Amino acid sequence: MHRSNPTPLARHRPGRGHAAALALLLAVVAAPLPALEDDQDKPMYIEADAAELDDQQSISLYIGNVDVQQGSMHILADEVLVHHRPDRQPQKIIAIGNPVRYRQLLEDNPEEVRGRARRMEYEADREELTLIDDAVLTQGDDRFASDRIVYNRITERVTAGTSAQGRQRVKIRLEPQQ
């Protein structure tokens, strides 16, 4: 894939890791991203055109048509950078795309949460997903749009616009419950 304008992730490329280390990383990279309680116990599957691992910096980079799945959670992106804890569990996941797409089921709710943005960041300790630049978060017919949306998976709380440190006004559509 030819890159004329590298994304911010492309500037932080880790060195090449060994194939065995990469395979081990892929086997243990089970982030608590999904909102369904048993999703976090399911294996995570990552597909990409290329993958790089830097054990010394505790990061891994997946480049080109990245597809991340774990239980009901699904992320599609151009690039995904994972910062790992010493035990190799993900601490922070950054996805960049045009756009990055996210979807996931919630406990006791038939409606999927769907998100899209040019950049998504997931903080595992806070279980918080931040959508940045052309951000949209939907559940059923309800829709939030702004330049920055923060979604807390545990509390299912959404903040957007200036309350989420964004600069644009928030556009919200809430459908009445029936």
Question: How would you characterize the overall build of this protein?
Answer:
The protein has a single domain (16-173), classed as Lipopolysaccharide (LPS) transport protein A like domain (lipopolysaccharide transport protein A fold, Sandwich), CATH 2.60.450. Helices cover 6% and strands 53% of the residues. The protein has 1 helix and 10 strands; from the N terminus they run αββββββββββ. It is globular.
Under the CATH scheme, the architecture is Sandwich
Distance between the termini: 48 Å
Shape: globular
**Any low-confidence stretches, pLDDT <50, length ≥5?**
1-34
Overall number of strands: 10
Described by strand count, sense and barrel closure, the largest sheet is:
10 strands, antiparallel
- The CATH superfamily is known as Lipopolysaccharide (LPS) transport protein A like domain
Count of alpha and pi helical runs: 1
Structural class: mainly beta
Content of β-strand: over 45%
User: Can you write the helix and strand succession as a string?
Assistant: HEEEEEEEEEE
Helix content, binned percent: under 10%
CATH class: Mainly Beta
Question: What is the averaged pLDDT score?
Answer: 75
What is the CATH third-level topology name? Answer: lipopolysaccharide transport protein A fold
Question: What is the count of structural domains?
Answer: 1
Q: Return Rg in Å.
A: 16 Å
